[in-house]
Amino acid sequence: MDRLQSLPSARIWEIFLELSRIPRASGNETEAAKWVAGYASARGLISRIDGTGNVLITATATPGWEQVPALAFQAHLDMVPVCDPGCSHDFTRDPLELEIREYAGEPFVTAVHTTLGADDGIGVATALAIITDPGLQHGPLEAVFTVAEETSMQGAAKFREGMLASEMMVNIDSENDQEVIIGAAGGCDLHASMPMKRTAVSGEEGLLLRFSGFTGGHSGIDIHHGRANAIITAARVVRELTAEIPLRLASFEGGTLRNAIPVNAQVLLCGTPEDTALAARKAAAIAASLKTEHRDTDPRISLEAVSHDPAPAMSPEDTRRYVKAICDLPDGVVTMSEEFPEVVESSSNLGLVTSRNGILMITALLRSLTSTGDLKKMMAEALEQAGARIEEANEYPAWTPSAHSPLLKLYEGIYQENCYSKPQINVLHAGVECGILKAAYPAMDIISLGPTIIGAHTTGERVSVPSVEKIYGLLLELVEGMKTIRKRS
Hints:
The chain is 28% helix and 28% strand. It has helices at residues 10-20, 30-41, 118-131, 154-157, 230-242, 273-293, 316-327, 373-384, 406-419, 433-440, 465-481, and strands at 46-49, 55-59, 71-76, 98-103, 106-111, 141-146, 168-171, 179-184, 186-195, 205-212, 217-218, 248-254, 260-261, 265-271, 302-308, 332-336, 344-356, 359-368, 389-396, 424-428, 445-448, 453-454, 462-464.
């Protein structure tokens, strides 16, 4: 890592390396927050940690710069804790092991057998390096470092109005150095629980359907690619089988995270030996058709039907009713934006299904640039036929795009002058903290940007060294360029 010390961004890397020594998986950010606040305090800045664990740092204006509009930087402290199979890393106590690797001749920083946490540790390090730079001339600056972004965004949700004085904010949590994000979808988790009236029948056999090899992906950013949802696919296959064969549903499991397109599912069906044998033969034919149907988006899709011990199961009638409810749920892209071509306006991802303790549980993540109200209604209408109890959780507002932002205009000009091209202006179909903060500070002008990060949330996560250098230089010019923007009266 010594080669990073000679770069203009060396302080960013020094801070990032220190952060990487402190465990900071979501829910365990306390020590990282203390370190960040202490780093700023030791350099004469005002810093505090609020009751939720967020860090707020304030730097007064350089003399003569008092009339420049106040600018805030924002990033999140937590990271996603994932390690390779067989890796013994303990995210509650072990430091990350970092290294530099070359990809197509470009140096990237990555971690050994674990996630790197550049999402969003590199954003924290960048903001902290800028706001504590003793040689930088600037107007009033603030830095906000939130907790729990990767799980619930409760850090941002509890960051109340009045805590910030800034008129403008740069969120450093994007992962492509060529783009600027100016808006994002809001979202809501929807949980449905349906009682399973199961009985055991003598002489039955079990048939386990295993669905695997789906491509998956992020349920917001990748939703428009049309990739198959393993849970929905499983339900449709069961619907096809049970339309002719009186099989009974014993269990249904699928998905790993509410915000990931499911890559696997398994369903246990029960019936007479003749019925399960017939279903196994039909499943083999269906497996071939699935490969053909999804060959472009999910080339490794697989359906395996294997004999299994029987278990208490629902009646054939209830089985068909419950499976129909799942099949009728909106999935994938629901509507496209009229204002921003090629931008998804609303979507639904059926991310989890479990059957435990006699209850079939379904979790879906609904997203919209406007309101999730219509999606909730569609979900309720589909689930009511199965007698589902529906609950909502973790709702967060959309960040409504504005293409007429003074901060965006300033950054666009700086980017074009330095990079000889315009940055891409994008609207995300994903939940970001900017929407929550915008709701608390409606008048705040916000943009989101960041260095190029590849493979976030996986053990292949890596951040481009030249990209960090690029964004750092652009942000330094942005701070200086703030003097060209008129302060609100």
